[in-house]
Amino acid sequence: MWLEDSPDAFIHCFDLNGTEIWKYGAGQDLGSDLDHMPAMKKIKLDSKGNIYVAASRACGYIGEKYKYLGIVYSFDSEGNLRWKFPESELMDSGVTWIDNTPDGKYAVFGTTCFTNADKWKEGTVHVLDGNTGKEYWNYSIPPLEPFFDYSAIWYSTQITPDGNNIITMTSDGRAFLFDNSRIMETSVPEVKWQENISTPVVVSGVPIYGSANYAYIINNTLIFSIGSTFSKDKNNDAPIEHPNGNSLFAYDTDGNLLWKWRVDGYAGECAMNDRYLVVPIAQNLVTKDRSAHGVYVFDVSKSGGSNSKLVQVYNTKGITIAADISPNGKYIAAMEAPARLDDGTVLGEYKVHVLT
């Protein structure tokens, strides 16, 4: 399958010979113009071949507000639309990530925006019936004042395969776990636990935070990936890295910290199977450290801390922007891209690396 960021924002489905079987465009729902195109952002499949897709469009400033539009789709394996959420309107928040249980019982996503949405509140976790698209419950995470007046969830809302727990992160550095099984019983959405991993700290008068990017679930290990350090002072850059920026944090479902790892570079979207976590690393945006570029492989099943779990490192000259791993863990594919320095020097090249 292939997802587009284009005026049509198609999802394409191909057979193994490369013949297109079907396609569907989110542009017909989200609209488009040359400056603000829609995109199919994330795709997931269940064990029956049903497909779940998050689609979004950044519309730019309309008046004083930066506006997003979002919608979620589900298709069967032949491309027939099973449902969309919302059914008859668009959310005025963006949707950049979606997850589901393998049996298709639940589909979950979070919303994002850079301002307060008018109707579909940003920073909200939504839990749907994966078969019908009906919403079971939602929970809006309040902004982290005084530093933020909005909450944004980007690439982090995940559900455990058994459907019992849901995790998410807001971009301000907070991680959350919801006990979905209890919420389904009580009909009372609430946070089971919260960790302030990379929330703002003030350094030399400048508030800095580590952007909370991705979250992953491998068996019963919950992994939160913190990205680059940013300043909340529009007149000053971050003077140093946030203490927990560019790091991985692993917890159990009770909120106990199992291990953590300082990345030294920027971790993109990781790949995983039921044992390994594969981390593509680009340069550190604050320190400009380029020695960390490459692929880092963790065996989450091993005992001990992050050093014992780190089982393979493969460095690249350019930045490593993506990686994937085969289901049996035998092969890893990674994409390298060139990095152009301020003096015009180019490090690396566009290249696909296949590791065993």
Automatic annotation (TrEMBL):
Alphabetical list of InterPro entries matching this protein: PQQ_b-propeller_rpt, Quinoprotein_ADH-like_sf, WD40/YVTN_repeat-like_dom_sf
Protein name (Swiss-Prot/TrEMBL): PQQ enzyme repeat domain protein
Top-level taxon of the source organism: Archaea
